[in-house]
Specification:
- The protein is α+β, with helices and mostly antiparallel strands and 171 residues long.
- The chain is 25% helix and 37% strand.
- The chain has four helices and nine strands; from the N terminus they run H-E-E-H-H-E-E-E-E-E-H-E-E.
- Strands 1, 2, 3, 4, 5, 6 and 7 form a seven-stranded antiparallel β-sheet that branches. The chain has a two-stranded antiparallel ribbon with strand order 8-9.
- A hairpin with a 4-residue loop joins strand 1 and strand 2.
- The longest helix has 14 residues.
- The model has no long low-confidence stretch (mean pLDDT 93).
């Protein structure tokens, strides 16, 4: 897993890369860092960084194992000379809890950190099996067994990867 991902990144972009942490359930590198690779000239805007990040995800399937069509831009913060691009994984429009892909560049366009917690193989029905108010009621009873003040919130339907073993999940 990790060695294949770093070797693929080195072949594709050059540089030396190391896996900092691995997601065994997704089968993806949670974080890879390295000497970096110059992949663009200075980014004039976050939008330019987002376009470049998506191009890199598409061009490096052995690293990210992600379908760019199932990624939604979550954020593209710029600070301290760095430009990060963070994507949220989706499935039929629903966010996948913990599913993400990220790339971090210098403002000068040098990629030096990437990560992927992309869960493939999701095949569930994307429709809710119970009404939202029923789900909220079940959660309140499970989490707040006694009367207490509850802040109201809007429930959100998501895909939840549930670990089945150290290397597999169900959804």
């Amino acid at each position: 897993g990790g060695l294949a991902a770093t070797n693929a990144l080195s072949r594709s972009l050059g540089g030396e890369w190391k896996v900092w942490s691995w997601n065994p359930q997704a089968g993806t590198p949670h974080y890879i860092y390295g000497t970096g690779a110059s992949v663009a000239s200075r980014f004039a805007s976050a939008d330019e960084a987002v376009v470049k990040a998506l191009d890199l995800v598409r061009a490096n399937p052995a690293v990210f194992k992600a379908d760019a069509a199932n990624l939604r831009l979550d954020a593209a913060p710029r600070a301290e000379g760095k430009q990060a691009v963070l994507f949220q994984q989706t499935y039929h429009g629903l966010d996948v809890y913990g599913g993400r892909v990220n790339l971090t560049f210098t403002e000068g366009g040098r990629l030096f950190v990437v990560g992927s917690d992309y869960y493939d193989g999701i095949t569930l029905n994307p429709s809710a099996s119970i009404p939202a108010n029923t789900a909220v009621d079940i959660a309140r009873r499970a989490l707040l067994p006694t009367e207490s003040v509850v802040t109201s919130f809007e429930p959100k339907l998501m895909v939840l990867p549930v670990p089945q073993s150290e290397t597999s999940v169900d959804f």
